Recover the amino acids of this structure.
């Protein structure tokens, strides 16, 4: 069990939607796993797409874009950031091997 807002499922849906919509292949692969520790729950979404731009990574991890005028292709990743922050969690982005993106959303477990 993790502490999260009621919008969490919408945020996870958005990660899937973003991975599929911005994929460069006809048959994208997007997977999600959930891992638990004593203190947190991690939702890991992995795709085999072209990867995220540095600005979109910044949006997910910090809620800020490198360029103040940059708004990406929509508000979806901003929504993910907001939901994760409102839930007391964090998000980080890594490169998948051999290609793609891994988004790790970490949410606190109730004390």
């Amino acid at each position: 069990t993790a502490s999260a807002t009621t919008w969490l499922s919408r945020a996870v849906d958005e990660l899937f939607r973003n991975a599929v919509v911005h994929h460069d292949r006809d048959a994208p692969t997007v997977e999600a796993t959930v891992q638990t520790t004593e203190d947190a729950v991690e939702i890991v979404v992995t795709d085999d797409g072209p990867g995220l731009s540095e600005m979109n990574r910044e949006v997910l991890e910090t809620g800020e874009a490198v360029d103040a005028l940059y708004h990406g292709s929509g508000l979806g990743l901003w929504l993910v950031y907001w939901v994760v922050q409102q839930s007391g969690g964090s998000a980080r982005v890594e490169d998948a091997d051999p290609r793609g993106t891994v988004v790790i959303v970490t949410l606190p477990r109730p004390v």
The helical segments are 8-21, 54-62, 76-86. The beta strands are 30-36, 40-47, 90-95, 101-108.
